From TrEMBL:
Descriptive protein name: GatB/YqeY domain-containing protein
Pfam short name (any one): YqeY
SUPFAM superfamilies with a match to the protein in the record: GatB/YqeY motif (SSF89095)
An example molecular function term from Gene Ontology annotations: carbon-nitrogen ligase activity, with glutamine as amido-N-donor
Organism this protein belongs to: Candidatus Limivivens merdigallinarum
Organism superkingdom: Bacteria
Length: 146
């Protein structure tokens, strides 16, 4: 995913007069730009940074849906639409069985200690943005059981 892809899709939404979609994509672009400026790479934004920002925005949108009162149906529908648009751009995350295979293959030496902390530290450094942290945590917890 590149920032140019997002911009093209935003322009397409503007031409189609699809205001909610345009606003959702625009908020993604703004979030990516903000993170890029903070990281000091304003011009050449790496794809993995864009993916991380999209995943963070997706998580935020999901939290908005979950915390929205049930009687606020219009607001909940708006949040759901935004979540669906962001999900279109989100990278596919690894499943629990893929994470387990990856960890057992790459971190067999760390798993022998049965200490969750060092394993989590090493695994999260490599799988950040590729798998959900909760999935990683549960897999590592399962693998480190005595």
């Amino acid at each position: 995913m590149t920032i140019e892809d997002l911009r093209k899709d935003m322009v397409a939404a503007m031409k189609a007069k699809d205001k909610p979609r345009k606003e959702a994509i625009s908020s993604l672009i703004s979030a990516v730009k903000k993170v890029a400026i903070d990281a000091g790479c304003r011009e050449d934004i790496p794809a993995d940074m864009i993916d991380r920002v999209i995943l963070k925005e997706q998580k935020t949108a999901k939290e908005q849906i979950d915390t929205c009162p049930a009687e606020r149906t219009e607001l909940k529908a708006e949040y759901q639409f935004r979540y669906d648009v962001i999900s279109e751009y989100a990278p596919k995350l690894m499943e629990a069985d893929e994470v387990k295979a990856y960890i057992t293959e790459r971190f067999a030496d760390l798993l022998e200690s049965k200490q969750k902390g060092p394993v989590m530290k090493a695994v999260m450094a490599e799988l950040k943005g590729k798998a959900d942290g909760k999935v990683i945590n549960s897999v590592v917890g399962e693998l480190c059981k005595p």
